[in-house]
UniProtKB/TrEMBL annotation:
<keyword id="KW-0175">Coiled coil</keyword>
<dbReference type="InterPro" id="IPR025580">
    <property type="entry name" value="Gp46"/>
</dbReference>
<feature type="compositionally biased region" description="Low complexity">
    <location>
        <begin position="125"/>
        <end position="139"/>
    </location>
</feature>
<protein>
    <submittedName>
        <fullName>Vacuolar-type H+-ATPase subunit I/STV1</fullName>
    </submittedName>
</protein>
<feature type="coiled-coil region">
    <location>
        <begin position="46"/>
        <end position="77"/>
    </location>
</feature>
<feature type="region of interest" description="Disordered">
    <location>
        <begin position="121"/>
        <end position="156"/>
    </location>
</feature>
<dbReference type="Pfam" id="PF14265">
    <property type="entry name" value="DUF4355"/>
</dbReference>
Length: 156
């Protein structure tokens, strides 16, 4: 008899009752996701804004890199100029000569300057010695006139 009690306790549904239960369940599930379309639209707009911001960020990053490169170049040029000024003051070479030396820092420039100074010492004077000639008597004596006289005599 216990078996009959369990069978009697099982509830049976008609098709209409079952349809009603399924409709209620589907309605509850649809209610959970009723704002899905709104969320999907908002997510799309967010993605667009994020992409636009990303483009702006990339532009700003590129601009920043260009400006940093310019700053680095200016700093290198300024460092070289300061080194050239220092070497010119220390060695007595004209700045125009120091600017032609190879080297990127004070030590390298100083070494190049010393090489030139040592070479100049071994060569003696770099200017030609010019004798007083009769043509120079009409002009005042000066290094420029002596050089012109020497040049004219050697070009003939």
């Amino acid at each position: 008899m216990d078996d009959n009690k369990t069978v009697d306790q099982v509830k049976t549904f008609t098709q209409e009752e079952l349809d009603q239960v399924v409709k209620e369940r589907v309605a509850r599930e649809r209610a959970k996701y009723s704002d899905y379309d709104d969320l999907k639209t908002k997510a799309g707009k967010f993605d667009e804004i994020e992409e636009a911001n990303k483009s702006e960020l990339e532009k700003l990053t590129e601009t920043n890199q260009k400006l940093q490169s310019q700053i680095d170049n200016f700093n290198k040029a300024n460092t070289l100029r300061e080194a050239q000024d220092k070497v010119a003051a220390e060695t007595g070479l004209p700045l125009s000569v120091v600017k032609t030396l190879s080297g990127k820092n004070v030590d390298e420039l100083t070494q190049s300057a010393k090489t030139i100074l040592d070479f100049n010492k071994n060569q003696g004077s770099s200017y030609p010695r010019v004798k007083n000639s009769s043509s120079s008597k009409s002009r005042p004596v000066s290094k420029e006139n002596e050089f012109l006289d020497w040049l004219n005599s050697n070009l003939k």
